[in-house]
Amino acid sequence: MLCLGIESTAHTFGCAVVDEKGRILSDARAVYRAPEGKGIHPREASRHHIEASHGVLKEALSQAGAGMKDIDLVGYSAGPGLGPCLRVGAVVARTVAGYHKKPLVPVNHALGHIELGAALTGASDPLVLLVSGGHTMILAFLEKRWRVFGETLDITIGQLLDQFGRAMGFASPCGGRIEKLASESSGQYLHLPYVVKGNDVSFSGMLTAAVKLASTSKMADVCYSLQETSFAMLAEAVERALSFTGKKEMMIVGGVSANKRLAQMLEMACERQASRFFACPIKYAGDNGAQIAWTAILDYKKTKKAVKIPDAFATQSWRLDTVDVAWR
Amino acid sequence: MEIAVEVTFPSASQARAAVKALIPDNVNLPEGLTLSMFFRGKTVHVAIGSRLSMMATAASTLDEILEHISVSRQVMAQG
Amino acid sequence: MQLLKQGAEADIYVTEWHGKKAVSKVRSPKAYRHEALDSAVRRQRTVHEAHLMSAAKAAGVSTPFVHFVDPDNAEILMEFVQGKQAKDALDVKMCMQIGRYAALLHGANIIHGDLTTSNFIVNNRLVLLDFGLSYYSERMEDMAVDVRLIKEVFTSAHVGLRGAFPAFVRGYGSVAGKKKTSQILANVKEIEQRGRYARVE
Fold first, then answer.
1. Which chain A residue is nearest to residue B23, measuring alpha carbons?
2. What ipTM was predicted for this assembly?
3. CATH topology of domain C2-79
4. Cβ separation of C32 and A269 shorter than 8 Å?
5. pLDDT (tens place) for every residue of chain C, 201 residues total
6. Partner-chain residue, chosen from B21, B25, B64, that has the shortest CB–CB distance to A95
7. Residue A28 confidence (pLDDT) above 50
8. Domain ranges (residues) in chain A
9. C25 and C76 in contact (C-beta within 8 Å)?
10. Contact between chains at A228 and C33 (C-beta distance less than 8 A)
11. C156 interfacial to chain A (CB closer than 8 Å)
12. A213, A222 in Cβ contact below 8 A?
């Protein structure tokens, strides 16, 4: 069984072909870059996806050495995400599924991150930290669904890094630049608000404080302190959730998981709780079509359920903890 | 007032697939806008009706629909 | 000293205080936190915790008795409370009592900060532990964060127990009154909508 997965929730338009053993036969992407100092504008990003979509689809098929006739299933990212972006992916998916008569499966984007991460790392029942521009959530699987054990009370970690970076005039996404600057710091720690409430975190106060600090301190030290403080909060929240749930595995997924310092801190937190640490390989940590294709395969193999084209919606605020997971 | 657009596809089956692909995103239109979208033969017909005060909304809705039609067409052209 | 529990926040030891069984709560350094940040966090939480435990007691909530506090070593020595964690013995009646406790704390402007079922010990009474993340606030929104956390716990770890959160709300309402309770619940809803999927803008 070959599945074509289509991802289009935010910056990335991606298509990939995955087989039922979880082999990623192709992974094509085009990423929208906002102008320096600017955030993502949903309509601008969707125009980028419009331009890129058929080229990315073509590349995914040719990389996989497959034609439309070889595709058995189509999965698409149906939310949560930015409306205009989601709709581009949905139109591509409905067109392919309708015109070529393939079963169509809507996939929750966050679930896609988790399932591909689990397949690639071998984690079987992990506590999950999902960190990206759109999410900061601590999740564990319990009674058919991924339940939220902790999350941000205001902005996400991705937004903290991006909004700080943009205020400094960096190009989005800013995480990589901040990580590099932080590594150039002498290790001078500047105090920033550290807010952990239970398993939840809050970053908005830190954002304001860090921007203010940047006008009087060395940029490298501010970046360093921003990372040290925000990541330590995440590590603490994860450690608390591990202690509470008793999970023996922990996995990090999502775009921000590419940060080495965050992974290092989480690994130390896991060690304290005697849990094994897994990180989704960096190549697949960010948004991609393979996560959608693989999750669609898992779903379709177990339930044999496809969605009819008129009912194949895109939902901006589709919450992960409302999705029944049949295959776990 | 009404804006109407016609787009011709290489075949009737493609026109049909494009209309089917676009309809789910256009079921909940803002108050004051009406939309009809159907195909006849190889041609897709789109008509948006709106109050004068909502012309800008109507134009941006149509803009997105045209983009989606072009995406759908290009995707099918790949065979 | 015998290690009772290695927690995420602190290590709990069983020890003695003038011949009586006692608990020592020590916040050991966390290797992943920068040293300057780590010692500031540990010291501050220790002092706060001891103070807020007494304040909560004064508000009518059962908490362990504090024997002494050592900020430099981030240690609190307190009474040993025998019993089970509410997490392992939860029933609807207990949820209601948890609601009453939360309302009593909030009435004294104390935000617990970690209101989970593993922080309650049950014997003939219900004893609330771990004020390590507690603080003073008069803001409805902060109280709502407490309520939202216990709701999250009820709907995740205790998803099998029906009526847990409604019972909590009844208990809360019996102390705080209808008006304040519904205001807080409205705040809870708002926070829930904010956090789940923050728009990338």
1. A310
2. 0.96
3. Phosphorylase Kinase; domain 1 (3.30.200)
4. yes
5. 889 887 788 899 999 999 999 999 999 999 999 999 999 999 988 998 999 999 999 999 999 999 999 999 999 999 999 999 999 999 999 999 999 999 999 999 999 998 999 999 998 899 999 898 888 999 999 999 999 999 999 998 899 999 999 999 999 999 999 999 999 999 999 888 775 544 333
6. B21
7. yes
8. 2-113+285-322, 125-282
9. yes
10. yes
11. yes
12. yes
Q: Does domain A2-113+285-322 have CATH number 3.30.420.40?
A: yes
**Topology at the third CATH level for domain C84-200:** Transferase(Phosphotransferase); domain 1 (1.10.510)
C88 is catalytic: no
Strands B33-40 and C11-17: unpaired
Give the CATH number of domain A125-282. Answer: 3.30.420.40
Largest CA distance in chain B: 42
- Is B77 within 8 Å of A50 when comparing Cβ atoms? no
Q: How far is CA A33 from the centre of its chain?
A: 17
| Residues in CB range of B31: below 8 A, 6 or more apart | none
SS3 A288: coil
Nearest to A80 by CA among A108, A47, A43: A108
A143 interfacial to chain B (CB closer than 8 Å): no
Which residue has 């506090």 as its token pair?
A: C69
Q: For A173-196, how does the pLDDT look when each residue is reduced to its tens digit (9 = 90+)? A: 899 999 999 999 999 999 999 999
From A304's Cα to the closest Cα of chain B, the distance in A is 22
The CATH 1.10.510.10 domain(s) of chain C lie at: 84-200
Residue C88 sits at the chain A interface (C-beta within 8 Å): no
Report CB contact under 8 Å: A147, C31: no
Sheet of strand A73-79: strand arrangement = A24-31, A12-19, A2-7, A73-79, A104-108
Record the tokens describing residue A248, joined without a space.
């023996």
Helix (H) or strand (E) holding A197: strand A196-197
Angle formed at CA A246 by CA A241 and CA A248, multiple of 5 degrees: 105
Number of residue pairs across A and C with CB atoms under 8 Å?
120
Phi–psi pair at B58, nearest 5 degrees: -60, -40
Beta strands in chain C (DSSP E): 2-6, 11-17, 20-26, 66-70, 75-79, 84-85, 110-111, 120-122, 126-128, 135-136
Please spell the DSSP secondary structure of B10-31, one letter per residue: SSHHHHHHHHHHHGGGGSSPPT
> Tokens 């025998």 sit at which residue?
C82
DSSP codes joined into one string, C126-168: EEE---TT-EE---HHHHHHHHHHHHHHHHHTTTTSTTHHHHH
Q: Which of B71, B67, B76, C197 is nearest to A9 (CA)?
A: C197
- All residues of chain C having their beta carbon less than 8 Å from the beta carbon of residue A152 are 195, 198
Q: Which of C11, C70, C72, C114 is catalytic?
A: C114
Contacts of A50 in chain B (CB under 8 A): 67-68, 70-71
Tokens of A281: 């390989």
Residues in A touching B13 (Cβ below 8 Å): 99
The nearest CA of chain A is from the CA of B27 a distance in Å of 10
